């Protein structure tokens, strides 16, 4: 067992963890941006764009993450990590779009009309009035989606991208002992758990803080 | 040239010739979906009630189950069942691994949906029912749970769709499901276009029909 807990193996796993974080971080940023843009396009009923966005959401929400991963890896010329980010962003973007839409819908319609009567332009209303309130309402589902992104990033191991799950599988391949296998899988599960659990604690705390601030 | 076109006609022809493979995969996916859906709903109801149970230890059980399965990847869980459990002499066919893996994972989300549904019903209802001579379980079953449907169904619908999509995790343990067949078939001949398209359309149709069905249930619950 002792030979398992050495610096090399630790660094090897951490290398994978870095890729997981990279894919997670960029996919979260891109999918929130994409989801917000789609949310706005559909809210303002921008012609053509709103329709295309609607089709995108309906299609991507109903296909598996793994399919996005395979398509991004084998049908685009992108390198492994980038294709992982593309797949996760496209897949999660559709879900974010629905979350943002829910948030926007929860803002009462009167706000838009009131702002319009005060001389705000449509874009100003969206930026200054609608989005800040919408985001506040969707923090819990959005952050729970963040944890899903980090969990689902393990799907990219299917195309051989060496993120945390992939690295742990490689490590397991080097040791045949039962106790080694359980130790490695336990460690990896713990790493994911700590990361995701802190994220959800953060979300709960932020939600409480904002709830206390609102009137 | 034809070779560079990912959707060239002859690639579709090849896919048609290999249709048995895809139908096999689709069957497996459907079997896992139905099995896992039933398991996840059962677990969801049991652990959902546990989440509002008067006893603190049982409530803690709900938290442990939900937090563990919601915060670790399905891929790790399924690989654990597939790779690690045989070391302690628990060997299961892949179909069963799929049903248990995906079912237990989604069960955690279903439990949260059920718990949220129960908490949306006012506490007075339980007290009123119990004052009328119902015991806890009767009150839960006849009074509380029927009222949770409206809150619970949309959340459960979402999770059911996720479940369908997540059955593709089987492809990572050579589970013979639709995604596995599409991946391995196209991996051997590089005809990615038709294979992924067919798989995508199949998953889309399953999800679409499932959400239509749940919509109908929701409408019925509202009446």
UniProtKB/TrEMBL annotation, chain A:
Residues 17-203 form the ABC transmembrane type-1 domain. It is found in: Cell membrane. CDD domains: TM_PBP2. Gene3D superfamilies: MetI-like (1.10.3720.10). Pfam families: BPD_transp_1. Keywords: Cell membrane, Membrane, Transmembrane, Transmembrane helix, Transport. It comes from the Bacteria. PROSITE patterns: ABC_TM1. The chain crosses the membrane at residues 23-43, 55-75, 81-100, 181-199. Its main location: membrane. It is a multi-pass membrane protein. InterPro entries: AA_ABC_transptr_permease_3TM, ArtM/GltK/GlnP/TcyL/YhdX-like, MetI-like, MetI-like_sf. Belongs to the binding-protein-dependent transport system permease family. This is Glutamine transport system permease protein. It comes from Pectinatus haikarae.
TrEMBL record, chain B:
Keywords: Amino-acid transport, Cell membrane, Membrane, Transmembrane, Transmembrane helix, Transport. The chain crosses the membrane at residues 32-53, 65-84, 90-111, 160-179, 191-210. Belongs to the binding-protein-dependent transport system permease family. HisMQ subfamily. Its main location: membrane. Residues 26-214 form the ABC transmembrane type-1 domain. CDD domains: TM_PBP2 (cd06261). The lineage of its organism: Bacteria, Bacillati, Bacillota, Negativicutes, Selenomonadales. It is found in: Cell membrane. This is Glutamine transport system permease protein. Pfam families: BPD_transp_1. InterPro entries: AA_ABC_transptr_permease_3TM (IPR010065), ArtM/GltK/GlnP/TcyL/YhdX-like (IPR043429), MetI-like (IPR000515), MetI-like_sf (IPR035906). It comes from the Bacteria. It is a multi-pass membrane protein. It comes from Pectinatus haikarae.
